[in-house]
């Protein structure tokens, strides 16, 4: 009777589980080196691009050291590993869900590139020793990151809403917005899908230029708006003031809104009277950023700020129109 051949290497399916485990261990180590802890810079290249490429490359090399499997198969394995890695980082290190969702499109693209590159290297270089150099990609990016150009970019989001109430009524519900009930907030992609905190209230301390609006959002987010322009019933402008604990780490550890790479600078409400006792209310927010991936960050910034503007303006509209209708109802004919 012939003996079983124990020299036969394991097949592709048999290698998947140890490959996934190895890639996850590698990914956790790279995460701790690149992302973990308080950092004053955004590791855009080493963290967003090269880390998922390296993780997917490790999974491909361990699962298919001869490069005989299909690229699509390896891409799917890479995506699965990245998804599990993100969940592990959220569970083990308190990684914020907002950052994970923002990074997801880049992670999917760059991990697919890593899987394809590793498969090509295995087939072309005929062996995994040379292909294994791909695992050094994230580490190679760390010293290069500070030398990459990070041009400054100014951005602004402006949202306009017409309200069936006079400017004085709109102003009353704009300068201070207390006790925002959850049912007053409309559903948005940012708040209901991504999980961005929602506004709770905006309290005014003082009057005129120099007054301070104290804002609270869900999740323990707090910050201030210092009034720089006060034209009653016409305009309200401010600069943002954030403290070290304005955004808790549990909400978002990597997006610092008052840092060298991102600064939410100032904002403004403008009220314009319209015929028929109506008001055009405009909310603008100005910000600056300086990263190697400004266009991508700006895309997300536009989404978040547009959603936040829409939510706040809708609260003001509903309250002002309710107040205006009450005034009309109480006015004798």
Automatic annotation (TrEMBL):
Which keywords fit this entry according to its UniProt record?
Answer: Membrane, Transmembrane, Transmembrane helix
Gene3D superfamilies found in the cross-reference section: 3.30.530.20
Task: Respond yes or no to whether keyword Nucleotide-binding is given for this record.
Answer: no
InterPro entries from the xrefs?
Polyketide_cyclase/dehydratase, START-like_dom_sf
Question: Has the keyword Metal-binding been applied to this entry?
Answer: no
TM region(s), chain numbering: 16-36, 42-63, 75-94, 100-122
Name under which the protein is recorded: SRPBCC family protein
